[in-house]
Amino acid sequence: MKFLINIIEKLKNKEELRRTISMAENPEKGDLNDWKDKDKKIETKSVEEVLNNKSNIEKTEPERKSEQENEQRETELKDNEQKKPQEKKVIIHAKAYKSIILYATRYANSSIRQEEWREIYGILVGVHSDDAVIVERAIPMTFGESHDVELGAKHYGFIAEIQDQLDAEGRGRFMVGWFHSHPGLSLFFSYVDVMNQLSFAQPNPDFIGIVFDHTYLLDSDLKPQSYSAHPSPANPNYNITEDYDTHPFKTGIVCYRLNDPFITQDNPKFDTNYHDVPYEILGLDQYFFANLLTELSSQVAKGRPLETAYREPDAPPSAQPKAAQADLSQNQGAPLGDMGWKSDEREIDLKEIEPPKEPSEELSQRDLQKIPLTGPPEELSAIPGVLPSEKLKKTPEESKLDNAMQLITEGKTAFLINDSFSAVEKYNQALKILDELGNKYIDRMLDTYVDVAESCLESKHENLAIKFAKELKEKAENVGDMFQMANADFIYGNALLKKESTQEGLEHLKNAAILYENAGDLAGVGKVNEEIAKIYLDNGDYTSGALFLIEAMQNYKKAIEKFHVKRRSSWALPANLRTAIEKMKEKVRKYMEKIDSDEVKNKIKNDLRDL
Ligand SMILES: [Zn+2]
Question: N- to C-terminal Cα distance for the chain?
Fold first, then answer.
């Protein structure tokens, strides 16, 4: 009871929500004309009245039960359909992605003549979870001609060596795929690529092949991107294929698997025997690009290659004493990433650079194309966001930050392989570091809280989710960050719902809606409405459910025009919101049959028409 009073109080100034909630709670008695007249609804009704007509959530009727049973059967049927063995999606750590783009860019970029672009090749190391292949590292191997780079005996030797080291580490990591570039050639598998893939995929059908073309980093008109986001509580029914082509980061890569790893070469379908696999890049955000740019310019300023291949030194060979080179080449047991150099390949001279023509105002991956790859450091510092060379060395603060980011990535991976204990441990360490770094990094800290709280919720650790949500709320309140306060309530509310504390959960969700609205994040408001609708629908209250869905759609529609800067969830991208609205319209039409009141039906019909 108390919660309803609280809600009504809180909603006094929230016209949109107030309308929906009061209407949903009292659909039959509500004067439908009031819906158009935003100001009347609550004032014309006492709290008592509202309470007397409390929500259908608490009601149970035999009639409703049978409807529910039918629904359940429908869902079960659908579930069974979807239970066909699904292929593992792909999750790539940003660090691995970085190695791929840097190594590829070293041999093909806008400052090298296109005829001289070279293909590169490497392997992917990681681990499998129940439903995903997780790529933690990309280890460059070699570069070749303009296309169809092939592996030599030496490289197979390297691969064996790497596997031995991974075995010695004992963390269950292994070679999960390979990558190569198609500089300016577009993204596909050639005959040779299918052959390469075949040899790896026969013993491991989950084996993946990544193809990268740097020219695709640039433009959104070219679109073989298959970026997908991670399902989250905010996005529980996330459908991987929906986000195809719509992610703002154009990654320049595609990920392939073979249709049939045992196909024979005489099969007419041999060269088309592959398909594209949805993938996600963990940690690919504005921090990643800012960090990447700094690192890139630092490498260039020091005259170092952007990224080195396995057993290639991290500095120009001429800069190293002969003895050291010899020593490195003998180095068999060093950890990966600290490998010596034993390559007989030529160094490609990076061509004369062109200084950036129109430096961009903000850091983005577009800037990757504009970074001059050689040249005096002054030209580098002309690019916004890139530090002058004397400042390129990482400060202790930046190193700490790197450390925190690394811990977060490891935490994410641990969640993915169902090791929640280590995951939370890693996140706690990262949060501690971010906390020590002070208010300058408050945004990252808050993002990290959201991240870990959502992951706890997904992995069914509601109490931990609540703990992190509470901390998030407190920290966000300290800096007056309404958006993150809303996230805290949203996660808190969802955790309570999972714990079957429906009333209290609803209260937090409604709080979240108010906070999202104050923060100007209408996608957030819509998402909360959608969640609330789900609760009503699960309880067989189709009228309230449909009304909340309408409200959700109205907010999504507004969100398409007004994107909130902090709302980076891919479900909130305009194209995805449009799809969501269409799906919800379908749902509402379906529920209309179950609504008795003609007035409500007409109201819904009108709203649907306006959407
Ligand atoms: Zn190829």
Answer: 34
**Which residue is it, tokens 């949903």?**
24
CA of 247 to the centre of ligand 1 (A): 24
- Compare 284 and 124 and report the one with higher pLDDT: 124
Summarize the confidence of residues 152-161 as an average pLDDT: 85
Tell me, in angstroms, the distance from the centre of ligand 1 to residue 52's CA.
69
Domain covering 89-286: architecture: 3-Layer(aba) Sandwich (3.40)
- The rounded Å distance from CA 196 to ligand 1 centre is 9
pLDDT of residue 449: 97
| Beta carbons of 300 and 380 less than 8 angstroms apart | yes
What is the CA(183)–ligand 1 centre distance, in A?
10
pLDDT in tens, 491-548: 999 999 999 999 999 999 999 999 999 999 999 999 999 999 999 999 899 999 999 9
Phi, psi dihedral angles at 480 (to 5 degrees): 65, 30
* pLDDT, average across residues 338-348: 30
Supply 399's token pair: 């190193």
Interval between CA 189 and ligand 1 midpoint (Å): 5
186 Cα: distance to centroid of ligand 1 (angstroms): 9
Q: How far is the CA of 244 from the centre of ligand 1 (A)?
A: 22
Q: For 542, phi and psi rounded to 5 degrees?
A: -70, -30
User: What pLDDT, on the 0 to 100 scale, is given for residue 481?
Assistant: 95
Distance in Å, CA 135 to ligand 1 centroid: 20
Q: What is the largest CA-CA distance in the chain?
A: 89
**Distance (Å) from CA 290 to ligand 1 centroid:** 30
Query: What is the mean predicted confidence (pLDDT) over 601-606?
Result: 91
Least Cα distance to 105 among 338, 292, 322 occurs for 292
Among 8-12, 158-162, 337-341, top mean pLDDT goes to 158-162
Cα-to-centroid distance, 273 and ligand 1 (Å): 14
Mean pLDDT across the chain: 74
Rounded to 5°, the CA angle 96-102-104 comes to: 105
CA of 213 to the centre of ligand 1 (A): 10
Domain residue ranges in the chain: 1-54, 89-286
Compute the distance from residue 188 Cα to the ligand 1 centre, in Å. Answer: 7
